[in-house]
Amino acid sequence: MELKEIIAEIREVLDGKDSLREEALRLTREIVRMSGDTIKALHRGEVEKAVGRLKLTREKVEELRKRLNDHPDLYHTGYVQSAHQEFVEASLFFAYMTGRDFPSPQELGVPYADYALGIGDFIGELRRHFLLLLLEGNLEGAEETYRFMEEVYEELMTLEYPKGLVNVRQKQDQARHVLERTLEDLTRAKLNRGLEEKIERGILKD
After folding, report:
1. Which CATH architecture has domain 1-102?
2. What's the whole-number mean pLDDT along residues 53-76?
3. CB contact at 8 A, 95 and 146
4. What's the rounded Cα separation, in Å, for the pair 36 and 34?
5. What predicted TM-score, i.e. pTM, was given to this entire model?
6. Using CA atoms, how far apart are residues 30 and 58, in angstroms rounded to an integer?
7. What is the mean pLDDT of residues 34-59?
8. What architecture is domain 111-206?
9. What is the pLDDT of residues 110-167, one digit of tens each?
10. DSSP summary character for residue 101
11. Residues in Cβ contact with 59 at an 8 Å cutoff, skipping those fewer than 6 apart
């Protein structure tokens, strides 16, 4: 075979793969966007809307998996992994906010490593929920959320593996910082409430 023919064959294969890559990028952008929409709806208390958005997101994740089924080099790339993390985060947050069982990696149709990284992002979203509860004056609910964040963090820290297998160390470090800041916020809020109660008791006595 002449070199020209070999290059033509390479070009044909890579043209097809490039086209598939563009389609995968489009799907991952949709997954990220719809995962974000799901989370926003949950924060606003729009559960039915969240159900619909998450269903559509799951369909896109399945479509992505099928399209890249014969192309593991594209499937195990950063942009696909990031989309999976967003989907996992939205799915876990949905389960938490609605009191449902947490879905497994098999149920979501994502790799174990991507799921593990999504847990780290889930902790960050729990902090946002925690802060919204504080703003509403729901200190008890905020503390309950913090305690759950602690549980999730402790479980996340049991995943000690080489970076080449799953780069979870960065997520663990981020989660630790999130937890520390959340504890500071909770402590400050409890101290403020205690001070307010003392002032109120003092006023009542007078």
Report:
1. Up-down Bundle (1.20)
2. 96
3. no
4. 5
5. 0.90
6. 11
7. 97
8. Up-down Bundle (1.20)
9. 999 999 999 999 999 999 999 999 999 999 999 999 999 999 999 999 999 888 888 8
10. P
11. none
